Structure formats: C-alpha cells, structure tokens
Amino acid sequence: MSNNSEIMVVTTTKRGFVAVWECGGGATNTGDATIIAKPNGEKPTACYIRQSGHLSCGDHALIPVHPGYYVVKTWHHRRDFTHRVYRIIRTFTEGEGDEKQGKIEVVLVNEFSRGEWDTPLAEILQAAIDAAEDKATCYHCRSAHYVVTKE
Q1: Whole-structure pTM over 0.85, yes or no?
Q2: Which end of the chain is more exposed for a tag (fewer CB within 10 A), N or C?
C-alpha cells in the first residue's frame, strides 16, 4: 500500500470478482451517491441490477471493477455538494468461502468542496459527476443512474 492510498471494503460476485455497488439517493434536504466510471469515464456494465426488495436509497447496480476504474462518492446538504473521486489501483480478496471479502486500494485524485475543485477535474469524468449529483438528489432513488444494462 502506498502512502496516499487507502483500502475500501467492497463486495464480491458469486463467481468471486471484486465489485462495487452503485448506490444512494436523496431525502428532503440531504443525499449521497456512489457512482463507478470506467478508465475513460464511460458507463460501466452492471452484472446485476436489483429490481425488487427495499430499493429506496439502497444498492442498485453491482459493477465488477478493475484497476483504473473510478469511484465517485458524493454527498450534499441542500445541494451544497462534496465530491471525492478515487482511482482504483488494485483489487483483491481476503478470506475464503462465505467469509470472502472484496477490497480495493484507491487513491484520491480529485475533491470538490465549498464550491471548488482542489485540482481541475478531467473532462472525461464530468458525466459521472453529473450522474452522482442526479442520484444524490433523486428523492428516494430506486434505480441505477450510470450503468450500461444488458439488452
């Protein structure tokens, strides 16, 4: 692990791939969202999209991730947004069987707070940021906002 990286606990698919849930949604004045983007900023393909059960502000799309993918974490209070954009350095699992746990090592590449970015945001990530804001303000969000679905 490098000096400025951190480890996030995520999930694994039934076949053992490391994956992250696109999740979140909004309440009356607050909300949050987690959005995944491919290395070129495009929408990733979800391997599973939840269609039933408790969906409101929950987990909506399970996305297998790889090094180079981005994880956008967004929060807001009365539309005053905070964004953190992480790039995945590596993915790995720990444990065996039912105890298997997915993990990703990430590095923070951009942060937005108090109305400005700490470093300029790459243009390829603007669509993911827009989707994160939409999802975080979507009242009782029940669907994925930034995924390619199998048709």
Answers
A1: yes
A2: C
